[in-house]
Prior knowledge:
3 copies of one chain form a homotrimer. Chain A is built from 13 helices and 9 strands. Chain A is α/β, with parallel strands linked by helices.
Amino acid sequence: MFEQQDPNLIQLNSAGQLKHFLTTEGLSREMLTEILDTADSFVDMSAQQVKKVPLLRGKTVVNLFFEASTRTASTFELAAKRLSADVLNLNIKTSSTSKGETLKDTLMTMEAMHSDMFVVRHSDSGAAHYIASNVTPHVAVINAGDGRHAHPTQAMLDMLTIRQHKGAFEPLTVAIVGDILHSRVARSQIHALRTLGAKEIRVIAPTTLLPRHIEALGVTVYTDMLQGLKDVDVVMMLRLQKERMQSALLPSESEFYNLYGLTEEKLKLTHPDSIVMHPGPINRGVEIETSVADGPKSMILKQVTNGIAVRMAVMSMAMGGQMTEHQAERGSE
Amino acid sequence: MFEQQDPNLIQLNSAGQLKHFLTTEGLSREMLTEILDTADSFVDMSAQQVKKVPLLRGKTVVNLFFEASTRTASTFELAAKRLSADVLNLNIKTSSTSKGETLKDTLMTMEAMHSDMFVVRHSDSGAAHYIASNVTPHVAVINAGDGRHAHPTQAMLDMLTIRQHKGAFEPLTVAIVGDILHSRVARSQIHALRTLGAKEIRVIAPTTLLPRHIEALGVTVYTDMLQGLKDVDVVMMLRLQKERMQSALLPSESEFYNLYGLTEEKLKLTHPDSIVMHPGPINRGVEIETSVADGPKSMILKQVTNGIAVRMAVMSMAMGGQMTEHQAERGSE
Amino acid sequence: MFEQQDPNLIQLNSAGQLKHFLTTEGLSREMLTEILDTADSFVDMSAQQVKKVPLLRGKTVVNLFFEASTRTASTFELAAKRLSADVLNLNIKTSSTSKGETLKDTLMTMEAMHSDMFVVRHSDSGAAHYIASNVTPHVAVINAGDGRHAHPTQAMLDMLTIRQHKGAFEPLTVAIVGDILHSRVARSQIHALRTLGAKEIRVIAPTTLLPRHIEALGVTVYTDMLQGLKDVDVVMMLRLQKERMQSALLPSESEFYNLYGLTEEKLKLTHPDSIVMHPGPINRGVEIETSVADGPKSMILKQVTNGIAVRMAVMSMAMGGQMTEHQAERGSE
Lengths: 333, 333, 333
């Protein structure tokens, strides 16, 4: 665990532009909307014959994955390459950097190679903040998931998917279902949905998988999924970490599916125009019925497509914010 | 194992152009010749100072290797990069995708990232066909070897090497020597040689390493290498999978070498202008005598060079065929 | 171990230009100065918005690391990408190439793929020479560290760092401290410092970590660090291989630190304007006190930055030398 600072002191430059992307918490509605608008333009570009723009040409992006995640690493690698960046993939086992000093040396070495951006996935909450604020402030840091804290690009690709299908956030009732307690995705989603003005945010989970004082985030808590899904416009399923199954926190896989799996039957309780989302990879028959995952309400593959666009958006915006700041610093010397 | 469809229904678009490259079986002589002609132009390009063409610029090629093969993966990676594509390497252990559904989800996720081409190596025969026909028909699929079924780019680089040295296929007698039973390369070679009009195709192997009914493919079978090599123009050695040695199918390594290894002595039985080929990596002193591998008849390194050119050819042709089809589909909407 | 030839017969073309970069030994002062001048121009380029030049566009650089080294491999990968080369990373376990013939086949295969440059790291002294002279003379070979023999790009980035801070080499007294016996870096540094005209080169180490006849290289030997550091302008620390600790060659870690670790206290013995260097990664509290590593005399991160520039310099120079030679060969045909 790392100590925290006000994220906006860190992730915005003096002109109020994004220079790191660490969390959705504390970012203004205007900033989240700018990210979504920029991402939309990259969605359009992806339909072109040549899916490549020179925005990060000659820049070096380092994928620093202290925790393995082929899928997330691939989307960031693709996003960086489509922005024409040079990409370096480093898979660093947490063990070899167990001492804070050694991690710091590794990062300062990467910075000294004139890296421009670090994409950081780490099992410790706050790792990306720590790096951005204490270690290499002149390198744009993109949080690709830190402990139980945040996974802001996942949350923003979800927001993009909702906006494409629902237009405005104000009239929406959104339900987040599953292991809220261990989910960095849920935290980032709640912050983004509140800022973007969603009418009601529900979390649906067994008591054992709910963080204490979760109501303080402005959500309504349901332990009964049948009640929680009633008339919702958006169902956001969370991925179930199978390793949690062995602990006492969770009932058996089949019991969990009965109570909190998204089935065709339960889906009938939602609004007729509702959509279903899941961050993937999905556990068919555990969190979600196969026919729901592949059905007309499912946005799962759309989310993947939007994931590239959102990552291109925050990468190009953060790089722009860093460059503006460097120029300002040079000008004031 | 996956069920099979007529390959030409899958690998050609409605205009008869290549849109996947799954097998040499069923492709017309004109199509095989077009592949060889295109490859020849890339051989010329490789002699230039700048070995790079923008044919796949802005396209995303994903190397999906469910079975490890550094050598084949490297040639495809190089071919894609010389075509200016963005390349993503994914090494997927078959174990993690043992359920068909999970493999399907992985592939559909990669497709949703706007991947344009999958290069697929898989231990199951028919895997590439299955993906191209059932999973992601809009992504160009290149078969980089599937089970015992096919290894069509290897066969085509062999054809390119033969044509460069012999000109026409019609007058040629070609011998394929070794473990025919387990070889995906042999199957692809036989289909290509027949279509291109080779006069006679001989297979030389011990009875235990011959598939049943192999004669139905239009080949002459020899179990005696001394008879089989007589006056042949081309000797195509197969790689011996050492792991087969332990099984009862094979005699000892030295006995195999005595009977089916290509030595200087045996080579004297072939036509004076004969050439020798091997897909590599070679087991010196097991399938082939060192002086033969390094001798003037050996085309082994030439095959490697041609391998890049053939892969560039089928990748650019299949991408062109996909794009033509997409435009046709849009036009008819 | 591989047999050695006069390195200059190998690493220079007939016009006297660099065509491989294998060792600093035997290279002229003019050549070393040209490398430093070229590297300086790349240092300037790295401060630009777009850190990319097209000098190696369309060229294929293969990273052949027979010995793992994430850090060195990363710097070469970045250097090659900033020169616009296509890069292929191959991690080859020494075990699979234990037979010389097999290594040779691997390399000739890579050459046949029209590779233009091999970056070679190998545990055997002389491996890079062997490849350049016997295996693939038309591929530019860059030595990224071979056994105990040489690590010439490390030595040249050290020379660049010294020149940036001290200007001329002639007035300098330089101390190299630590495990001289096992260090390929020390050998390369000594050759470069002598050729560039440093006034005095001292090596400081316990008797057990000094090669026999080291004085023949033109250095002064100190076993007492307090005496050896007196008035030196440059302190070059070596990395301590922790695995050596277990052998009888080394005292305990704390005893080594007491005798040969660089502390603030010992640093006071050096010239007031002295600088401190270390090839990294550093073992804080083993070879160097943390406050020294992070202090104003420390050049450690500067060395990392210069490492990219020096690698870009030798890569672009060796490629130029190869191309000149190829053209000369073609002209004389």
